Amino acid sequence: MLTHLDSQGRANMVDVTEKAVTEREATAEARVRMLPQTLQMIVDGEHPKGDVFAVARIAGIQAAKKTSDLIPLCHPLMLTSVKVELSAEGEDAVRILARCKLAGQTGVEMEALTAASVAALTIYDMCKAVDKGMVIEQVRLLEKLGGKSGHYKVQA
């Protein structure tokens, strides 16, 4: 059932007034594939624009907090925790893991996905001068806890 549509098929924001406040958490990931020399430059801290991971981490945190400004039908949420972790994966990729938490009436999947996506876009933005062929891939929800639908974890 698509809960963002009313009985006439029009988009609307879901009414969560009657939902219980529960602890909710979501974890999402994204990957950025790049040339091995681009990743090496990032890892070695030799990027002319500065610490790519630090800037992408801050961008992801900010994005999670602004999700309702970006996704029209998302509720503005009082997040209690946003963590964005970036790490080199192999010789040609960065893995981004974003985790969002709150005690509230609706889930934080979109906030986690937005954090991972914007962190990936920030890496692209900072590195595009040296590697325009980067690919942002595998943006996906890994796990979600809390709420009526319960626990979801991606199958490996």
Automatic annotation (TrEMBL):
GO terms for biological process: Mo-molybdopterin cofactor biosynthetic process. The active site is at 125. The keyword Lyase applies. It catalyses: (8S)-3',8-cyclo-7,8-dihydroguanosine 5'-triphosphate = cyclic pyranopterin phosphate + diphosphate. GO terms for molecular function: cyclic pyranopterin monophosphate synthase activity. The keyword Lyase applies. Its EC number is 4.6.1.17. Pfam families: MoaC (PF01967). Residues 13-147 form the Molybdopterin cofactor biosynthesis C (MoaC) domain. Pathway: Cofactor biosynthesis; molybdopterin biosynthesis. Keywords: Lyase, Molybdenum cofactor biosynthesis. Substrate binds at residues 73-75, 110-111. PANTHER family: CYCLIC PYRANOPTERIN MONOPHOSPHATE SYNTHASE (PTHR22960:SF29), MOLYBDOPTERIN COFACTOR SYNTHESIS PROTEIN A (PTHR22960). Catalyzes the conversion of (8S)-3',8-cyclo-7,8-dihydroguanosine 5'-triphosphate to cyclic pyranopterin monophosphate (cPMP). Homohexamer; trimer of dimers. Belongs to the MoaC family. HAMAP family: MoaC_B. This is Cyclic pyranopterin monophosphate synthase.
